[in-house]
């Protein structure tokens, strides 16, 4: 394959990298009163590459309590709309039955992930109360502990399991 930049770019603006005329033109704005074009699901999906499959997220998928997922949601690494996580409780709403499963004292274990997640919650509380120069230190601590939680989640293969379950990942390891 030839290097595009090696011998200079001698193509005109209407010619694409592959030597064909690009049939692209500047779109004209709609006239006043003209209806806007309707979009379909196929046109919304047109931008997806065949290499990157769309995430599988179904409203009927019931997420069961998973300690690693709950820690990931708490620190902002995962997004599970049906899961609400605080330091004291995890609530998972079943979208079909409208039933809420509640798990109290979910961080009472003494494994490394639970310890770091509790530390993250305490750092968040200190950040909320901090002012001035103490706020910078509190922000640094929150970021440091969050990164440690993400590292532990990655080592436990929680990211792999989350991708398999169709969970949206907000912070990559």
Description:
This protein is α+β, with helices and mostly antiparallel strands and 173 residues long. The chain has five helices and five strands. The protein has helices at residues 41-45, 67-75, 112-129, 133-155, 158-165; strands at 78-79, 83-85, 89-94, 99-104, 168-169. A three-stranded antiparallel beta sheet has the order 2-3-4, covered by helices on one side. A hairpin with a 3-residue loop joins strand 2 (83-85) and strand 3. Helix 2 packs antiparallel against helix 4 (133-155). The protein is globular. 20% of the residues are buried.
- Write down the Rg: 24 Å
pLDDT < 50 runs, ≥5 residues: 1-61
Structural class: alpha+beta
What is the CA-CA span between the terminal residues? 34 Å
Describe the main β-sheet briefly: 3 strands, antiparallel
* Topology, number of strands: 5
What is the strand content? 5-15%
Tell me the strand order in the biggest sheet.
2-3-4
3D shape: globular
Number of helices: 5
Helix content: 25-40%
Overall average residue pLDDT: 76
Helix and strand sequence: HHEEEEHHHE
Outline:
This protein is α+β, with helices and mostly antiparallel strands. 36% of the residues lie in helices and 11% in strands.
Strand and helix layout:
Blueprint: H1 41-45, H2 67-75, E1 78-79, E2 83-85, E3 89-94, E4 99-104, H3 112-129, H4 133-155, H5 158-165, E5 168-169
Antiparallel strand pairs: 1-5, 2-3, 3-4
Helix pairs in contact: 2-3, 2-4, 3-4
Keywords:
173 residues; alpha+beta; three-stranded antiparallel beta sheet; two-stranded antiparallel ribbon
């Amino acid at each position: 394959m030839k290097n595009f930049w090696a011998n200079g770019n001698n193509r005109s603006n209407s010619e694409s990298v592959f030597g064909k005329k690009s049939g692209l033109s500047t779109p004209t704005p709609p006239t006043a009163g003209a209806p806007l074009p309707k979009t379909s699901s196929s046109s919304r999906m047109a931008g997806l590459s065949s290499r990157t499959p769309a995430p599988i997220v179904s409203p009927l998928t019931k997420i069961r309590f998973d300690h690693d997922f709950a820690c990931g949601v708490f620190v902002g690494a995962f997004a599970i709309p049906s899961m609400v996580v605080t330091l004291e409780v995890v609530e998972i709403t079943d979208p079909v039955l409208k039933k809420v499963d509640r798990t109290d004292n979910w961080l009472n274990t003494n494994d490394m992930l639970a310890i770091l997640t509790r530390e993250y919650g305490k750092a968040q509380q200190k950040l909320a109360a901090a002012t001035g120069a103490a706020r910078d230190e509190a922000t640094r601590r929150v970021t440091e502990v969050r990164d440690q939680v993400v590292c532990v989640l990655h080592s436990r293969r929680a990211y792999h399991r989350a991708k398999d379950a169709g969970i949206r990942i907000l912070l990559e390891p």
